[in-house]
């Protein structure tokens, strides 16, 4: 008997609506030839991917950072000023790494901070504090190594009138001082003052640097991968600082802050600012840090850059 059962085409049509491709029973030894997908179906997708990647320049890829998406409410964490319960800071550290902007205590006054490498976070900080993009900001560093990385460093004596004050500076830090130094290429230009509003044509400028002698502040910094941009939490009046974290939260929370670390009420003593970019260390604001013999005090400096650093410094 034949292995195949013979049907008429008319019967095939009645069973399958005229489908001439009806599968007939084949012997077990028959191998089906797999049907390959059409190559044309893949071509447009490849072309679209190539076009999408061509639009993104290497520079944009290098500096692109994820934008912080606020999913919850304003976060307020109360900690011991001694840092004994620094484990409570873990949520704040994660928020900072994601691009959040918040308030933390320092050894002087409270500061609004964000990750210096997150461009969208720096933009938000400027909007919250109402600081123009041409104005300089300060950075909170973890150690002297950070200062050497993100600035051109302290004068070590070069035979051109610059004194070697590095050894003297090491005895001041950590401490209530802000030192003005020339920023290096590692620090995004967005964090310093420009001579022009265009970042593309901006020249390298100066930046204030701090190493805070505060246990809570240091606990946060030691868990970060880069310094924090910082600006003091000032009141509505000139030379007035907010020192009560409850009031800070009530005023700046609605402005867009993501978190606040409550380290208790502080004393309204900002840092002493010393300009290290000239031929000698020049005090431009006396604050909590005492004036040392190697620092020079002159008449009040009215230059716009100095005034901007005084206004934003902690």
Automatic annotation (TrEMBL):
List, alphabetically, the InterPro entries matched: DHBP_synth_RibB-like_a/b_dom, Sua5-like_dom, SUA5_domain
Instruction: List the signal peptide residues.
Output: none
Q: Where is the YrdC-like domain?
A: 86-289
SUPFAM superfamilies, from UniProt? YrdC/RibB
Q: One Pfam family name from the record?
A: Sua5_yciO_yrdC
Record NCBIfam families? L-threonylcarbamoyladenylate synthase
Q: What is the name listed in the Swiss-Prot or TrEMBL entry for this protein?
A: Threonylcarbamoyl-AMP synthase
